[in-house]
Specification:
Elements (H helix, E strand, L loop, with lengths): L1 E7 L2 E6 L10 E9 L2 H9 L13 E9 L11 E4 L2 E2 L5 H4 L10 E2 L11 E4 L1 H5 L3 E3 L6 H4 L2 H12 L8 E5 L3 H12 L4 E6 L2 H8 L5 E4 L5 H8 L5 E6 L4 H9 L1 E9 L14 H7 L2 E4 L5 H12 L5 H4 E6 L3 H10 L4 E5 L3
Parallel strand pairs: 10-11, 10-13, 11-12, 13-14, 14-15, 16-17
Antiparallel strand pairs: 1-2, 3-4, 3-8, 3-17, 4-5, 5-9, 6-7
Bound molecules: zinc ion (2 copies).
């Protein structure tokens, strides 16, 4: 099969290698689409401690079940499936509640296990047993299905925010994740959606999703703009979809009474602290939530939203590449001129 092998920071080679086997409890998937995540870009550029090269990365997968290892039940050959990234131990208190993304011994497909930037991949036994293979209707295309993973992460983030029709929602960061958050908030009929970014290209992209307002924070102070757009009250929901310290601080300053904030993106590991007026949290009853990855239930929700057309996955895909062009594709994803970039290993 053809596979893109990550050989260390800045090194990715596409070559023919043996198709993976399908041992006891495993499921072999023929990968038809695998979208590039921001973390794939970071692994390619800087490496990551739980990704040991040579390795196949990629976790935003849409494919077909090709073969079943001995003992596998509940998965059918030929079904079109997405694969849940997080694999938990199944025993810790988080796994017992279905929160495999928070498992104390958690690992992930496309990180610890090999992933989807190849024509075939095997889903490991613990993931199969945990129900990580989720079928979808063949009416949905594979590239659209590859959007289920990042959308499920956004669903995880928004679960805490309980967005209603009363809420003014501000999204900092107009990359693919910020745009997905906007689409989700729209699906919940938020009263008003405001999108903020410093990058002109990203703002132009966000504009196509027709938010109610766009703020170019390279030109304007976003806190002042948000305050004046909300009659001085602040935003009810603020999602920080960019890993920038000062933006997290701006989020706290622009929240309304009873405001809910999601720090959706991590900060640089060497500078993970911020400073803000804690009295705002106290007197305004502001809540700040984190969010990390997602679990199976949220994949089903994401699939349902996409299959019903409540989130238009096709609109979020701006580029598709064959596997041979993976380095170019990663550059495109990193460059910010597109939203989701999808690899198609059989093209
Ligand atoms: Zn992802
Ligand atoms: Zn666990």
């Amino acid at each position: 099969m053809k596979a893109a092998i990550y050989e260390g920071p800045g090194k990715m080679v596409v070559r023919e290698q043996e198709k993976p086997s399908c041992k006891k409890g495993e499921v072999l998937i023929r990968v038809h689409a695998c979208a590039i995540c921001g973390t794939d870009v970071r692994i390619y550029r800087h490496g990551q401690k739980n990704v040991v090269p040579p390795h196949i990365i990629g976790h935003e997968i849409g494919g077909i079940v090709e073969a079943l290892g001995p003992g596998v039940t509940g998965v059918e050959i030929g079904s079109h499936v997405v694969v849940v990234t997080s694999v938990g131990c199944g025993e810790c208190k988080f796994c017992r509640r279905g929160w495999h993304n928070l498992c104390v011994k958690g690992v992930a497909i496309g990180y610890y296990y090999e992933g989807g930037f190849a024509q075939y991949m095997t889903v490991p036994e613990p993931a199969v047993m945990q129900g990580n293979i989720i079928p979808f209707s063949p009416e949905l295309s594979f590239p659209e299905a590859s959007i289920v993973e990042p959308l499920s992460c956004c669903i995880n983030g928004q679960e805490y925010l309980a967005i209603s029709t009363e809420d003014i929602v501000v999204i900092f960061g107009c990359g693919p994740i910020g745009c997905m958050h906007a689409e989700l908030a729209k699906a919940k009929n938020a009263k008003k959606i405001i999108m903020v970014d410093v990058d002109k290209k990203r703002l132009e992209m966000a504009e196509k999703l027709s938010p109610d307002m766009i703020i170019d924070s390279s030109q304007h102070n976003p806190v002042e703009e948000i305050m004046s757009a909300t009659a001085g009250e602040g935003a009810d929901v603020i999602i920080v979809a960019c890993g920038v310290n000062s933006v997290q601080e701006q989020a706290v300053s622009s929240a309304a009474k009873k405001g809910r904030i999601s720090f959706f993106a991590g900060l640089p590991k060497d500078k993970p602290t911020i400073t803000f007026d804690s009295n705002l949290i106290h007197y305004r009853e502001i809540s700040v939530f984190g969010a990390f990855a997602s679990f199976a239930e949220q994949y089903r929700e994401a699939l349902d939203l996409i299959e019903k057309g409540r989130v238009d996955a096709a609109k979020l895909i701006t580029h598709k590449f064959p596997l041979d062009n993976i380095v170019e594709a990663i550059g495109t994803a990193a460059g910010g001129e597109g939203l989701k970039v999808v690899m198609q290993p059989w093209r």
